Amino acid sequence: MRADQPGQVPGEVTSEAAAPTVLELSRISKHFGAIQALNDVSLTLRAGEVVGLMGDNGAGKSTLVKIVAGNYPPSDGTMRMEDREVVFHKPADARGEGIEIVYQDLALCDNLTAAENVYLGRELTFGVGPFKVLNYRAMFQRAGELFAELKSETRPRDLVRRMSGGQRQAVAIARTRLADPRIVLMDEPTAAISVRQIAEVLNLIRRLRDHGIAVVLISHRMPDVFAVADRIVVLRRGTKVADKPIARSSPEEVTGLITGAIESV
Hints:
Elements: E1 21-32, E2 35-46, E3 50-54, H1 61-68, E4 76-81, E5 84-86, H2 91-96, E6 99-102, H3 114-118, E7 125-128, E8 131-134, H4 136-149, H5 165-178, E9 183-187, H6 195-210, E10 214-218, H7 222-228, E11 231-236, E12 239-245, H8 251-259
Helix pairs in contact: 5-6
GO molecular function: ATP binding
InterPro entries: AAA+_ATPase, ABC_carbohydrate_import_ATPase, ABC_transporter-like_ATP-bd, P-loop_NTPase
Pfam family, one: ABC_tran
């Protein structure tokens, strides 16, 4: 979380003010046959912290996030939440622990409304026995509350196919908030959208942080990461080469780490 104490570097967490740890990865490795995608990666996430995860294509960013999200099992290493080891065999296991992911393609249905997308797969119903119908009123009301909480202009009855990229991100993020998550993983949320929409998405990320949610932000856009992240983690060829407060790094240093001009920090 961001510091507010006199003399403290913005973006740095002191031991006295440290938020609780929500996830601890210890020496995570992953190989696909002869390909070593991750090698002994350790990482700690704290509540209300935005971690920028950066690296070149093939660095292992998406593999690491998919392990946390339950898509892949690690080949080696452990994951712990609240001082207990967790093992995810499928994405539902991760969601059960409060981990939600927003993929780059968002996985939205263009022919449905914003509210229907928020509740997709988790629809509210009423009725008796097999005679149940969708409770649109309740879904529209709760979706509207989530959009208001995120300070988004998206409206529950808007069709997704008519939305801007920023509004679509709001729908995807609202869907994660529906589950009251502790961790939200975001894969390139500002790719291929306008400058105005990028600002909207970055504000959505800040809203998540302000609600005490840990956010892992995968992005190739250096300005976006430095605008919202509290900490920067850099992977190169499956190995972690940097993990430090954003205030103690720079775009030039991160570029050097990604390209190999700087070995590690």
